[in-house]
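B., you asked whether I could sanity-check this one before it goes into the benchmark set. Here's the sequence:
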Amino acid sequence: MSNNVLSYREDELIRRFRAGEEEAFTFVYDQFYFLIYQYCLRWLQSKQDAEDVVADTFLKLHQRCEQFESTEHVIGFLKTTSRNACLNHLRHLRIKTDKQETLLQRLSRQEAPDFEWTEVQEVLLNLVYAEVEKLPGKMKEIFLLSYRDGLKPAEIAKRLNLKVRTVSNQKTNAIHILRAAMPEYPLFLALLLLLD
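And here's what the prediction gave me:
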């Protein structure tokens, strides 16, 4: 078998790519990396962020290599996946910036820092996340994407390839489980609402 993927027709390249051959994947990677990287860099304005998104995009491509029927499908997947990853990254930055701005405004309005309340929140938050670690895998992931990362149910559903209803149900179930696990902390729900 030749070591040069360039000597194969497209159908042979796709056959080898679908079979998971590293040589075929490397060829696809070399052909499209720069195109996807430039696209991401244009939107994210950060070389590191663009590189991270591109790496994740190609990892997802590699994990699904058996699904592609043609190079057009590969290109379409790379464009769609990298675009969605850029959008998610930018949304996350916006949420983070909005939360930071809210905290800054709250802090500037306070005459003296309320360290006791901060300590209580920190202790309670640590207890909450200790219980979160015990949740079933998908439920835990949905809970963290919602409360830690600030994603809406529709965004989580899209990211995890689930129905929005499933995400909402899992989120509600997680809160019930956590509430039952921590009955001695009536402020638990209030803290969750603050995190949301």
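One thing to flag: The radius of gyration is 22 Å. Otherwise nothing jumped out at me.
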